[in-house]
Amino acid sequence: MTDEIVRAEALRKTFTLSRKQQKIERTSERRKVAVDGLSFSVHSGEIYGLLGPNGAGKTTTLRMLSTLISPDAGDATVAGHSIVHEPQAVRDHIGFMTGELKLEGFFTPDYLFDFFGALHGVERETLALRKRELFSRFGIDKFAEVRVQDLSTGMRQKVSLVIAIVHDPEVVIFDEPTNGLDVLTAKVVTDFLLELRRMGKSVLLSTHIFSLVEKLCDRVGIIVDGRMVQDGTLAAVCGQQTLEERFFALYEELKGEVV
Amino acid sequence: MKLLAIAKKEFARFFRDRRMVISMLIPGLLIFILYSVMGSALWDEEEHYQFRVYLSGESLATEQITSLAAASDWSVEYLPAEDIAAAEAAVEEGEATALVVFSPGFDEAVLAYDGGTAGATVEIVYNSSAEDSFAFYTLASNVLSNYRQAFYVLPSDRADETSLFSSLLGDVLPFLIVTLLFSSAMSITLESIAGEKERGTLATILVTPIKRSHLAFGKVLPLAGISLIGAISSFLGVMFSMPKLVGMSLSGLVGGYGFVSYLLLFLLILSIVPVIVSAIAAVSTSARSVKEASGYTSVLMIVVMLLSIVTGFVGEMGPWVYFVPILNAVAGMQAVLYMSISLWQALAAVAVNLVFSVLLVFLIARMLSSERIMFGK
Prior knowledge:
Oligomer: heterodimer
Largest sheet of chain A: 6 strands, mixed
Strand content of chain A: 25-35%
Strand order of the largest sheet of chain A: 6-7-8-3-9-10
Shape of chain A: globular
Largest interface: A-B, 25 and 26 residues
Order of helices and strands of chain A: EHEEHEEHEHHHEHEHEEHH
Number of helices of chain A: 10
Number of helices of chain B: 15
Structural class of chain B: mainly alpha
Order of helices and strands of chain B: HHEHEHEHEHHHHHHHHHH
Radius of gyration of chain A: 19 Å
Number of strands of chain B: 4
Helix content of chain B: 55-70%
Strand order of the largest sheet of chain B: 2-1-3-4
Number of strands of chain A: 10
Strand content of chain B: 5-15%
Distance between the termini of chain A: 39 Å
């Protein structure tokens, strides 16, 4: 339980701001540091939550770990592979999910499962076996032949989730799992994450919702302005306080004021 | 393997969607119908006229009119005009085709004419708004103006129909083909790349361990294939309606070219498809939305159309044209149609286009791995 499946070391990422972005951010700096020397690790078989306000660098961190973007400095290993030197191998071992990733509505869950299976290079027999298992486990078999565009939001979400783990990844990275979802769909997602933990997967998620962390996460890392402020088990981070109280206390310590 | 999966998905997206298939085939059908209708309006309007003509006075010219009309399969029936006013009214009301009034002693006066004041008149009452009446007037005045001439002009046009056509085809066809190719490639490529990017389905594919170059090829190749289907449909529409449009048989139109000409023509057309598709694909990849992509694409379309039309103006431009993508194929097609191409020119054009397409695909692959382009806001 204590071996590190994800290990981020001094990750750093800066973005160049356009004129317009400079105005929005009210700064004359051309470069914005999104992630500033972030280090943390996720243990095998746990759910780890990155908690922070919008703009803290959560999404950027998860994108770096998923090899969608590369860090300016620092490195991270995912299932033993470096995100800088072996991005292709990293992608083989992770399932990445965000609300921004969509499925083509024209195709059926059945077709898309096979399609993404092929993109991950899963063997045909293995794929068929996995499809049967996952589709019945998450109740997709009932609408496997219905086009995604004709499915309800909850069903669609299930399909997206299952397709993200088509290749049986050890690590699932999930950016803002319940953002913008209605209560029923959000429950589909949280149940799915708990199910993943039961299946022995390691989950890394980002969120700004305290209750989600309290409900799901074994350990939490609090990020403000691209830096890790505190991380550890929920009990260790919170002490006698609730997570929300603890977060605002830390935030006030750091910034001098809350808003 | 992964490239194949992408390609298969692109084909599935197209062929499983009946509406997409139909919309790809419809332009060819529309061109065929439109051109055929235009053609028949131009060429088939000659009808079988039966002229009913009131006649007053007499002349041998009436027999000449009848025999000339018979040459066009028309017939003339002369009725004696006993009451001129009644005959005029009949023409006005469309009951008769025309009224012809020869002055008394018309033929004798014409024969006796020596270049002084004309002593004979012929009056033709007709209605130019009625087709048959106007046709009769044209015919009759033709005969009468040549009546009793010392000589006839016998025209004989020796223009070779094939070369006439090759010049018509040579100027129009390459432009037409490039335009048709572009429009059939445009909608599906915009949809498949900029559309997928906008809807977030491309990002889902980028998260998987597929090589960016495989993704780029897996997109461009099937899109090129599908565009070719659309272009072939339009091309067939043009080829089958062209003879009707110009009033010639298909074999007369294309019979002048041999197998090699067709092969070269086909190769040249084939080589433009990947250039156009990968150019639109590259533009679509760099754009943030379908709307933005279609804006860029219309600029691209103007450039491509200019390239395909300049050869018509500039004519012989020297061998360097064979190294400019698209322009080379247009110049090549033109040269094939004018029967003045050399094999190396055609092959050079095809090779240049293929190399250019591959370069564009690698550019797309680079863009697919660019954070700024794929995930920049």
